[in-house]
Specification:
By secondary structure, the protein is α/β, with parallel strands linked by helices. The chain is 30% helix and 25% strand. The structure holds adenosine-5'-triphosphate and magnesium ion.
Length: 302
């Protein structure tokens, strides 16, 4: 059975405020789809990338990216350093708008709408599509104020409402128990793993639709890493997650689908990243279709 999802609302003039189109609502009002049991035709596409390439100035960083990212799935981006994983993940919430000289070519749709349309408000995009970076970056504020930051910007002022949001976000990020008695303490006093969960909670506090995670565990010990992986599993019932990771086991453990990128010299000898293969994670790791994927996942990448 295919139910029309609530997020594919077409942008119309009615949804335009001062010439800036608002994106469709994020509310999830249907049960999440079970992982990998979802037949191909029932996957709800959140992002569709068609012939995407990204330039930094005149240099083409990555090319040939065609893939669909589905709702309630965890999609992993893997591949050697410099192949464009960060470049592609940053294109999904228009982070490149903030990088002088960066240009995203091709088409990226988000719930069927052109993400790069002039009518779409990039600030709203980045609220809906949250990002967690490799290095946890708590603000030099209290734990409470870190989490309340986004909701306050969005206009939530009432203390009791903020209290609820803070507790809920920290609970979802599996950090509440560890910090509930020191919400007024500086977030800079947290351990690396706690700080990363704080950053995840901060992203969750504005109720995003998508969470982009660029190597979120690379600075963490195995225990903190396991906690974040458990957390990703819990979150994906309500969210769509894209993760960049250098940890092959992590990609195999957490993701439903995996995209393998590599970098190869173009006609002029400049290395350009490209998407080699994108498939169900099990397929990528057990019977990849491309010898370059196999070489990488078996550690024979040269
Ligand atoms: N801000 C930038 N300005 C210019 N070139 C950039 C910029 N960011 C990335 N690049 C180039 O784009 C290419 C892809 O880089 P990217 O950071 O996306 O790779 P990556 O796959 O994330 O690598 P890593 O695994 O090391 O993080 C590289 O050649 C890199 O030098
Ligand atoms: Mg990177």
């Amino acid at each position: 059975m295919t139910t029309e999802p609530p997020m594919t609302t077409t942008l119309t003039p009615d949804t335009t405020i001062d010439g800036v189109a608002t994106l469709p609502p994020t509310e999830v009002d249907q049960p999440p789809a079970a992982e990998s049991e979802v037949p191909e035709q029932e996957r709800e596409v959140v992002f569709r990338l068609s012939e995407v390439e990204v330039f930094y100035g005149a240099a083409r960083a990555v090319t040939g990216v065609d893939l669909d990212i589905a709702r309630n799935e965890i999609t992993a981006f893997i591949g050697p350093s410099g192949c464009g994983k960060t470049t592609v993940i940053r294109s999904l919430n228009r982070m490149h708008d903030l990088t002088p000289g960066a240009r995203v070519m091709g088409t990226i749709t988000y719930h069927g709408e052109n993400l790069y349309s002039g009518k779409v408000d990039p600030a709203e995009v980045r609220r809906r599509i949250g990002m967690v970076f490799q290095k946890p970056n708590p603000f030099p504020k209290s734990i409470y104020d870190n989490i309340a930051y986004g909701p306050r910007i969005n206009g939530t002022r009432k203390r009791s409402q903020l209290d609820d949001i803070v507790e809920h976000a920290l609970t979802r990020a599996a950090l509440w128990g560890e910090v509930k008695d020191k919400l007024k303490s500086s977030a800079l006093g947290l351990s690396g793993g706690q700080a990363q969960r704080l950053c995840i909670a901060r992203a969750l506090a504005v109720d995003p639709d998508v969470l982009l995670m660029d190597e979120p565990c690379s600075a963490l010990d195995p225990i903190a890493t396991a906690r974040i992986e458990d957390l990703m599993h819990e979150l994906k019932d309500n969210l769509t997650i894209v993760i960049v990771t250098h940890n092959m086991q992590q990609a195999a453990r957490v993701s439903d689908r995996t995209a393998f990128y590599t970098a190869e010299p173009d006609e002029e000898g400049r290395r350009v990243g490209k998407l080699v293969e994108y498939d169900v994670t099990e397929t990528i790791f057990t019977k990849p279709g491309d010898p370059r994927t196999e070489g990488y996942i078996t550690g024979r990448f040269g």
